[in-house]
Amino acid sequence: MHETVIELLNSNAEHADEFQSRFDDVQDSQRPSVVTVCCSDSRVLQDHMWGNDQPGHIFTCGNIGNRVVQRTDSGEAVSGDVLYPVEHTGTDTIVVVGHTGCGAVTATYDDLTDGLSEPAGIEHCLSLLKPRLESGVESLPSDVSRTEAINRLVEYNVDRQIEFLIESDEIPSGVDIVGVVYDFQDVYGKRRGEVHVVNVNGEIAVEKLREKHPKIDSRIRRLWEY
């Protein structure tokens, strides 16, 4: 067996020792407070980024590009990963988590600008991102660098995912939908691993968001108000 798996099992043994009693209240059911949709990038630590060590608190979903959309026989729908806790466990908050330097956004940008050849599974994922990022690519200022373009599109992608959720009949109107960007590249500041709020229920204007949410005004920041 690969040494990495052995290391994982050893770490899991420590985890099991620590968590013996933490499953007492959630062994038979769950009522998570929030569902997060993160990019499945190894640098995005889905629970640890929130300091979460409580089973049953956060329902985590992960895929490349933090997508909330899946393609079905009847058309596009809210991904079942996201919809399940809203539909069945009473979860009333959705957080869409983008991150700086996102590889899926980068690949989509490259595909839209220069064309790209990827294996079928990856191409399928990009095909769900491309129609949502195309208008963003077209709107980018001509003087931005490639890195700046990617990170602006990270925000734009979060916005489009939230837009899809808001417009979907599958998501009740009372569900709060928040968009954030996880920064480990010193793009928004010097605190690596900090989360920055970029969208709340479709609103992206920073000053309006800060006025409406004064308790978190220092955490609200955007690179691009298009």
Automatic annotation (TrEMBL):
<feature type="binding site">
    <location>
        <position position="99"/>
    </location>
    <ligand>
        <name>Zn(2+)</name>
    </ligand>
</feature>
<dbReference type="GO" id="GO:0008270">
    <property type="term" value="F:zinc ion binding"/>
</dbReference>
<dbReference type="InterPro" id="IPR001765">
    <property type="entry name" value="Carbonic_anhydrase"/>
</dbReference>
<keyword id="KW-0456">Lyase</keyword>
<feature type="binding site">
    <location>
        <position position="102"/>
    </location>
    <ligand>
        <name>Zn(2+)</name>
    </ligand>
</feature>
<dbReference type="InterPro" id="IPR036874">
    <property type="entry name" value="Carbonic_anhydrase_sf"/>
</dbReference>
<keyword id="KW-0479">Metal-binding</keyword>
<feature type="binding site">
    <location>
        <position position="39"/>
    </location>
    <ligand>
        <name>Zn(2+)</name>
    </ligand>
</feature>
<comment type="similarity">
    <text>Belongs to the beta-class carbonic anhydrase family.</text>
</comment>
<protein>
    <recommendedName>
        <fullName>carbonic anhydrase</fullName>
        <ecNumber>4.2.1.1</ecNumber>
    </recommendedName>
</protein>
<dbReference type="GO" id="GO:0004089">
    <property type="term" value="F:carbonate dehydratase activity"/>
</dbReference>
<dbReference type="Pfam" id="PF00484">
    <property type="entry name" value="Pro_CA"/>
</dbReference>
<keyword id="KW-0862">Zinc</keyword>
